[in-house]
């Protein structure tokens, strides 16, 4: 398969090391397992591992390949096994804090042009969670599109109210209603899919991502579960991130539903998502205003005047505190790990000298 059909465009071509492209093949990561990868070779999925050099030199998860990455690789045994030697520079990166207490990055996908953030009109609808998704998408330098699923399960007045809620907060974002049952809105989504561009599906478990992927691919090959009649919720079926090449040569990455959307190193994403609050902060009396209890705080005044909602303000403050704490913990851990790494390398060198 021509790598251009998998999204290899001029942006990547301009960043290719000519000496490496002569010695290695360029391939795209299509799936990530616990300790291995799958990469594409002539329309075939090939099992792959990274070199020992990558394992030894990696300082963080960002140094490892993720789904959507372009890599330099060598293929062996009649193209049934490959070794990844290096990750080609990324155009964009979608990441979050790992679930639980551990302060570390988890890479979701790389080199995405547009992210489809999916929420249903049912009980899955949550503006605060939508803001969290927008933060990581904006941080990753990715264009967001909001998809509202299960339009057939909500009355028109309820759909209009929820659409208005989103438009008030995000007036410039594209929103598409759709139904996987009646197929309403599916063609609008297909119209967005441009050959050679990469898209990803983000959303909670049961929001309809996998069924949408089946509808977009015109091929019901991805496992789905029934929707519960009681609350309109589907059950989570995607168990890993995977890259799929569609018939029109667009590329789409399916992701499992994420229970947690913790923030780490997302200050740019927060500022982009909460633009109107950030603009207000520039009018605060004090440069170091925390926007919580100071006199002369323009944000608190706007809150009192009901220019911004209490819920949006609280989410803005909460996410700023969260990312500041997580970043501090992360860099403290990195410092300890770096010192430990230096100690290990020093011990190895001393052992080698004795030999």
Overview of the molecule:
The protein is of the alpha/beta class and 355 residues long. The chain has three domains: 3-87, OB fold (Dihydrolipoamide Acetyltransferase, E2P) (Beta Barrel), CATH 2.40.50.140; 95-254, 3-Layer(aba) Sandwich (Rossmann fold); 277-335, Ribonucleotide Reductase Protein R1, domain 1, CATH 1.10.40.50. Helices cover 35% and strands 22% of the residues. The protein has eleven helices and 13 strands. The chain has helices spanning 10-13, 18-23, 52-57, 127-139, 156-169, 186-192, 209-217, 267-273, 275-281, 298-304, 310-354, and strands at 25-32, 37-41, 44-50, 70-76, 81-87, 93-97, 105-110, 114-120, 143-149, 174-177, 198-203, 242-245, 251-254. The strands form three sheets. Strands 10-9-8-11-13-12 form a six-stranded mixed sheet, with helices on both faces. A hairpin with a 2-residue loop joins strand 2 (37-41) and strand 3. The longest helix is centred in the last third of the chain and has 45 residues, at 310-354. Mean pLDDT is 86; it is low at 227-236.
